[in-house]
Write a structure and sequence with these properties.
This protein is of the alpha/beta class and 110 residues long. The chain is 47% helix and 23% strand. Helix 1 links the parallel strand 1 and strand 2. Helix 1 packs parallel to helix 2. The model has no long low-confidence stretch (mean pLDDT 87).
Length: 110
């Protein structure tokens, strides 16, 4: 029996205006799972507050010996990650499009 990895989908802006709400959502989801995927396909804007939230989630996961994966990066996320060279920090492949991610999830649900 395989256990399906929980997925937290973030839609819209990841900016200072949503920071507190998103922080609670991210940390709450991370508390409930040993492995968590954050689907970024619906992110339309990402500022430094959004980047800080993703970094906080990654550090929290590491500190609690949990796994956090960022998946299906939107163009807005890729642009920011490449601009400030965050790809190595997160270590998640950026070449996976939302469409190929959905196909991969369907083929391998764990």
């Amino acid at each position: 029996m395989t256990v399906e990895t929980p997925v937290l989908r973030i839609e819209g802006e990841m900016t200072i205006y949503q920071a507190e709400q998103l922080k609670q959502k991210l940390l709450g989801a991370l508390e409930q799972a040993s492995v968590l995927e954050i689907n970024l396909a619906g992110v339309t804007e990402l500022d430094t507050s959004g980047v800080q939230l993703l970094m906080l989630a990654k550090e929290t996961a590491r500190a609690k010996h949990k796994e956090l994966r960022l998946v299906a990066h939107s163009e807005a996320v890729v642009d920011v990650f490449e601009l400030i060279d965050l790809v190595p920090y997160f270590g998640d492949p950026l070449v996976i499009t939302p469409t190929s991610y959905a196909a991969e999830r369907a083929a391998n649900p764990s």
